[in-house]
Amino acid sequence: MMSLVVDCDPGCDDAIAILLALRHANVKAITTVSGNVPLAQSTENALMTVAVANVETPVYAGASKPLKGPQISNDVSHGSDGLGGLHRFSHSRTSESASACDFLLECVSKDDWVIALGPLTNLAEALARDSEWGKRIGGISIMGGSTSIGNITPVAEFNVFADPHAAAKVYTSGARLKMCGLNLTHQLEVTNETVTLISELGTEKSTFVASLLKFLLNRAEKMIRSRWAPLHDPCAVLAVTHPTLFQFEEYFVEVETQGTLTSGMTVIDQRTTRPRLLPNTLVATQIDATRAIEVLVDSLETQ
Ligand code: RIB
Ligand code: CA
């Protein structure tokens, strides 16, 4: 079974990704970062999610602000509590005393993959303290960036935009990288049928996930007047636990950190009329969305 560390900013889709990872891998720990919501809330949400899953997975709190530049908050996208505010689960869990960065440096080995679902600040801080860290671990599967459109800006995806300097450090670290950008995650859409299917499972996990999906669809209806929502973060888990569901292409990827209009853009060398720059990332281009939803639903059936 794969051994993973999930670095995240829960976040509705982060919480679903955590449950998916817990079902299909040995999750050594969860590390949290400020992103969708401030650090204290993302940490609380990670603790609640492991409580819902009824596991003892440790949670380590990480960075409360980006490496450089202003802190942006995206809490409108995930509700006031970062998890849609529809379903709270009481628990008495607390995060570990060590920091996320300390855990990443001391406890992630060559057999472990890090699933990065939020701004990449914790990983960049580990690289700042040990520039070889990325090469020493199994790999990093990133939900971030895009080979096409952005979301938080016309060309930038939220996780990369929230800390472009951190993302640039990760993409130039020499680590084995998989990238699930918006070009990929927009293929994995949530529908009313998905919510109904999951609601009918009747477990604590399925009730929780159904509430998260309902929030995402309700938000979509308000924002784009359509009950269509992409499921971003679970893609980065599946890219490691279920790689046969994907098509990947090897590309050179780097991050714009200076651009007035393009800060946070993942610049990907897809040229066809000139030699390309040496690839550094396995970029996911296709996903079998039907099968991915089946895997997600199956993972929620057992308590
Ligand atoms: O752009 C999508 C990403 O931003 C996802 O990780 C979501 O949780 C938000 O953090
Ligand atoms: Ca996230």
Characteristics of this structure?
binds alpha-D-ribofuranose, alpha/beta, binds calcium ion, eight-stranded mixed sheet, single chain, 303 residues, Inosine-uridine Nucleoside N-ribohydrolase, Chain A, two-stranded antiparallel sheet
The string of secondary-structure elements, in order, is EHEHEHEHHEHHEHEHHEHEEEEH
The count of DSSP E runs of length 2 or more, i.e. the number of strands, is 12
CATH T-level fold name: Inosine-uridine Nucleoside N-ribohydrolase, Chain A
Residue windows where pLDDT falls under 50 for at least 5 positions: none
Q: What is Rg?
A: 18 Å
Strand content: 15-25%
SSE arrangement:
Layout: E1 3-8, H1 12-24, E2 26-32, H2 39-52, E3 59-61, H3 100-107, E4 112-116, H4 121-129, H5 133-136, E5 139-143, H6 158-162, H7 164-171, E6 177-180, H8 182-185, E7 189-190, H9 192-199, H10 204-224, E8 229-230, H11 233-241, E9 246-251, E10 253-255, E11 266-268, E12 281-287, H12 289-299
Parallel strand pairs: 1-2, 1-4, 2-3, 4-5, 5-6, 6-12
Antiparallel strand pairs: 7-8, 9-12, 10-11
Can you describe this structure?
There is one protein chain. The chain is an alpha/beta fold. The protein has one domain (3-299): Ribonucleoside hydrolase-like (Inosine-uridine Nucleoside N-ribohydrolase, Chain A). Helix content is 38%, strand content 17%. The chain has 12 helices and 12 strands. It has helices at 12-24, 39-52, 100-107, 121-129, 133-136, 158-162, 164-171, 182-185, 192-199, 204-224, 233-241, 289-299; strands at residues 3-8, 26-32, 59-61, 112-116, 139-143, 177-180, 189-190, 229-230, 246-251, 253-255, 266-268, 281-287. The strands form 3 sheets. Strands 3-2-1-4-5-6-12-9 form an 8-stranded mixed β-sheet, with helices on both faces. A two-stranded antiparallel sheet has the order 7-8. Helix 3 crosses helix 4 (121-129) and helix 9 runs antiparallel to helix 10 (204-224). The chain is globular. The chain starts with a strand and ends with a helix. The relative contact order is 0.16. It binds alpha-D-ribofuranose (RIB) and calcium ion. Alpha-D-ribofuranose is lined by residues 9, 11, 13-14, 35-36, 117-118, 143, 151, 157-159, 232-233. Alpha-D-ribofuranose binds at residues 9, 11, 13-14, 35-36, 117-118, 143, 151, 157-159, 232-233.
